[in-house]
Amino acid sequence: MKHHTQHPGWSGLAIAIALALATQGCNDNSSEAPKETVKDNSYYRSLAEGMVARMTHDEQLGMLVGPGYVFANGAFEINSEALNNLKGDVPGSVGYINGVFNAESGLDIAASKMADGAAGVRISPTREGEGGTFHGTAFPVGTLLASTWDRDLVKQVGAAIGNEVKEYGLDVWLAPGMNIQRDPLNGRGFEYFSEDPLVSGVMGAAEVEGAQAQGVGTTIKHFIANNAETSRSIVDNIISPRAIREIYLRGFQYAEEHANPWAVMTAMNKVNGTYTGQWADLNTKVLRDEWGFEGFVVSDWWSGDGHYADMIKSGNDLIEPGGPALPYGYGDALTGLQEAYAAGDLSAEEIKQGATRILTQVLKMPSNQGDVASNAPDLAGHARLSRQAASDGMVLLKNEQGSLPLAQGSKLASFGITQVNTLKGGAGSGDVNAAYTVNLVDGLGQQFSVDAGLADFYRTFFEQNKTSSDFGGISTVVSCPEPALDASEIAAYAASNEAAVITLGRNSMQGQDRANAKGDYLLSDTELALIDEVSAAFHGLGKKVVVVLNTGGVMDTSAWQDKVDAILLAYMPGQEAGHAIADLLSGAVNPSGKLTQTFPASYQDVPSSAGFPGTDTDGDGTIDTHYYNEGIYVGYRYYATFGKGVNYPFGYGLSYTQFDYKNAAIQSNTLPDSNGKVTLTATVYNSGAVAGREVAQVYVAAPAGALSKPAIELKAFAKTRLLAAGASETLSFEIPASWLASFDGATNEWVMEPGAYKVYVVPSSDVTGIAPLTFNLASRLVVGKTTPGALALPAGVTEASFETQY
Prior knowledge:
Blueprint: H1 12-22, H2 41-54, H3 57-63, E1 69-72, E2 75-78, E3 95-97, E4 100-102, E5 107-109, E6 112-115, H4 142-146, H5 151-167, E7 172-173, H6 197-212, E8 217-223, E9 236-238, H7 241-248, H8 250-259, E10 263-266, E11 270-271, E12 274-275, H9 280-290, E13 296-298, H10 308-314, E14 324-325, E15 330-332, H11 333-342, H12 348-362, H13 379-393, E16 395-399, E17 411-415, H14 440-445, E18 449-450, H15 452-465, E19 467-471, E20 475-479, H16 487-496, E21 499-506, H17 525-540, E22 544-551, E23 566-569, H18 577-586, E24 599-600, E25 625-627, H19 636-641, E26 646-648, E27 659-669, E28 677-686, E29 695-701, E30 713-719, E31 728-736, H20 737-740, E32 742-744, E33 749-752, E34 755-762, E35 773-777, E36 781-785
Parallel strand pairs: 6-7, 7-8, 8-10, 9-11, 9-25, 10-13, 17-18, 17-21, 21-22, 22-23
Antiparallel strand pairs: 1-2, 3-6, 4-5, 11-12, 14-15, 16-23, 19-20, 24-26, 27-28, 28-31, 29-30, 29-34, 32-33, 33-36, 34-35
Helix pairs in contact: 2-12, 3-12, 5-6, 5-13, 6-8, 13-18, 16-17
């Protein structure tokens, strides 16, 4: 292992500063106060340029690739022999950025350590030869965080995760995930925020801002269109340039502009014929030239087709994990770059450019800032934050006749194996090695009188019937079938308890998509029978039945929602799951979460359903092409535009109180300035009997013109503070011209078309019966220009050849 330990307090950054000071010479005006150095990105880039200029060619190349893995002891292990200048490892780090030590040049740049875990920091909880534990806090999954619609809270979560990254001695958090939830069967959808790019962008920016304020890097991912797990390493997603820009890129653009992430991670898949990590249109023309991105671009692990020079030339600066792509048989990454340079296919300037971009950010990181890991983050405080985020994001889908909240201390019959096998998060790299997970039956027991005999039945069944499977050595998936209860047993529980809670669970995982089948998207026969029999028994005695959904994403509710009194969508709530769910059921917390994804009436109503997850176009039995047939009509844009009924609309969520919207008004309009904006206000009143919070959403209906338009699109939102009964708050919303514009591929422009724009300030995307505000635009307004021909479809493919003609 290339690991130098002399002068541990002298990082490359410290050496560079010392050298810079030494070259300043004498200053006759010594009485003048020195100017304070602003350590912004330009400052670190200047340092990086000087260091890269002093590096050898091999050192520069070494910055562009991780050390790679070797297969040993039945598992992948980091190739320590290729890891340069690591100053203290963190077991469980998923990757590294090589450092440099050269006594002759004076360079001492520590290697940087990367951590997985979209819902928290995923490292090894124990360390060989050391006592104690090193757990990360398991926060709610991305979809649940976004369902809070609370940017400030999500920023706090980002800050807590960033703190754990730093205190455990790491440098980069490989998150947040920002892909669009195009189809509910995406196995990795739980990591992502929404079907809407504005929600994704705001929430992603909030997490980035919170984490990076702690002095660690983030990588927004997967850039772009990782919208299915099937064949994700080879599939070619065919997407129109308009859909790419309006749906799949826009959230990333928002996060880049508002939070300045230090890194962007490309996806494994292709888009329009080219792997994203090898696509200059994406990584250079759009990300850097159009958006002004100043960080570095890193590949997803073992992505691409082994043409490593193409990655660097496209603007994908860092190849991870480096070494040979062991799962796919591609050659060694560093060797590939060396051979490309020798052949003239990769220039010295391209190598220096990538090294400079990477080093600019590396110099900001804890390993090169002299930070000493405490290994003692505030896990107790972070657990409290996780519980708050979970309870603030859960969505109350149904609550007939005020069935919820249940009185604290009331006697409950708790059904469903998931009350014991409670899911804190999904499986794969987004998992977190938390110290514990509070299951639902234990959480309920803290606030209610849970039927002990029934609880013991489920605990015993679980212990006798559970199975475990390993997910790539990084996650353990525990499964258990749903036990069947006969009608007489259920009738006895109904007689001795005041209400029933039925918990239904669905796991999701990286690398595997879900299925529109019983036991997954649909309820199993055993689950349907449980709902039927419990509802019949409890309703027969005038008692309520509540369903809790502990799931990674959307599932069918049409077959059973009318049979129960209340439905609480808990998603995957993190390690405090049981406590947070009980908080909602008892009314200790008033629900304020709202859907960031639509619950359709059936999976067949999803516009992408006929083609998901793609097709086998070459007849080899493997899916290789995925046509994004719905274009820009993703999620609620489709349902609202084409009048397709849904079970629960985007933006929907109930409360234990009621809210009224009054005095909505446009306060200012600086259009047609291309940098202008529309500002509006509305007052939200709590007209109910208990304190609560409300999410107000602003949707805009753009005028018909040369471009087809969705019926409505979300353009702004805000969440009130906790409003006491009878209290109100006036919310303000700003909609910039850039978010009112549509992409015109014929002219390579973002444009607003002339006509009347309707604006709805509403509690959900269902704007039926709501009178809109309006403003008018007299003539076509060009808001921005884009690179001609960028992101084009493959030769010979037109939008008309694959997009549905609605």
